[in-house]
Amino acid sequence: SIQYSYEHSVATYDSAMSQQHIRELMMENDFDRAIADEEFVVWYQPKYDVKTERIAGAEALVRWKKSDGTMISPGEFIPLFEKNGLIVRLDEYVFRKVCQKQKERMKQGKVVLPVSVNLSRATLHHDGIVERYAQIVYDNENPFESVPIELTETAALYSIQIQGLTEKMVNVGFMLHMDDFGSGYSSMTSLNVLPFHVLKLDKALIDYIGNSRGDQVIQHTIALAHGLDMKVLAEGVEKKEQVEFLRKMQCDEIQGFYYAMPQPYEVYDAMVEKEQSERK
Ligand code: C2E
Ligand code: MG
Ligand code: MG
Ligand code: MG
C-alpha cells in the first residue's frame, strides 16, 4: 500500500476513496429497484448515411433517469456494473427494450432501421447469452439485421474463447459492429479472426482529421475495412470539415453531434417519421 509522509494527505485520500465507494454501494443496492421502476431508459443516437445524409439507423445508449429527474450517464455506472456483474442484466434489459420497440414499429407500419445495442465483454462471456439474445429476437419477430450488436474493440480482443463466441453469434444470424476501433487497444489480429460486419472508427481517430498523418491513417483504415468487406462508420463527428473529409474517403456512415445527439425514443421516432414523409 502507498504510504504518505503527511497525515493530512492520508486523510484526504481515504475520504475520497470512501465517497466513491459509498456512491458505488448505493448504485449497486439500488439496481433491482431501478430496473423494476424502469429508471433505465434507452436513448437513440441517429446514424447518417454519408451519401444521402439521411438517417440510416441508430445506436441505443442507456441512461439512468432518477425519480428526481436527474440523469446519470453510462460512463458513471457501466464500469461499476461491469465490475460487479450487474451489466449482464442491464445489457439484456436494454436489448429487450430495443427489440420490443422494433417490433412495435413494425406493427405500426413504420420503417424499421437497424438499431445497434452495446454488449459488454462480461455479458458476452455469460453462459447461454447467445441463445438468450436469439430468443429475444425470435420472440419479437425481429430480423437479425434490425438489431446489430456492438462489441468494444477491447472486448473483442483476440482470444480463442471470444473468437468462438463471436462466430457463434454470427452463425445464429447476428450482425456485429466493432466499437471504438482505434481507441487504444487496436489489434490487427482482431480484424484477422473476428467476423465483424461494421467497423466503428473511434472519436480519437476522427479528432486527428486535418492533421496530415491522421488523414492518412483514416484513409487507409477505411480502405482496409472495405477490403475486408466491412462497412465503416465514423463516431464522434462534430465538424463539417470532418464530414467532408469522411465523404471523400468513402466512409459509409456517420454518428456524431454534427448531425444529432442521443435522444429519447420519441424524438428519434419523430425525426425518422419526418424524413419518411418528406420522401413521399
Ligand atoms: P459508445 O458505445 O462508444 O457510444 C458512443 C458514445 O459517444 C456515447 O456516449 C455518445 O453519446 C458519445 N458521442 C456520440 N457522438 C459524439 C460526438 O460527436 N462528440 C462526443 N464528444 N461524444 C459523442 P454515452 O451515451 O455517454 O455512452 C458512453 C459509453 O457507455 C458507450 O460508448 C458504451 O461503451 C457505454 N454504453 C452505453 N449504453 C450501454 C449499454 O446499454 N450497454 C453497455 N454495455 N454499454 C453501454
Ligand atoms: Mg457503442
Ligand atoms: Mg464502446
Ligand atoms: Mg464507440
Descriptors for this entry?
globular; single chain; binds ligand C2E; alpha/beta; binds magnesium ion; 280 residues; eight-stranded mixed barrel
Would you write up a description of this structure?
Keywords: Phosphoprotein. Residues 24-276 form the EAL domain. This is Stage 0 sporulation protein A homolog. Helices cover 50% and strands 19% of the residues. It has eleven helices and ten strands. The chain has helices at 7-36, 74-84, 87-107, 121-124, 129-139, 160-172, 188-193, 203-206, 212-227, 240-248, 265-279, and strands at 40-49, 55-65, 71-72, 115-119, 149-152, 176-181, 198-201, 231-235, 253-255, 263-264. Strands 1-2-4-5-6-7-8-9 form an eight-stranded mixed barrel, surrounded by four helices. The longest helix is centred in the first third of the chain and has 30 residues, at 7-36. The model is unreliable at 1-8 (pLDDT under 50).
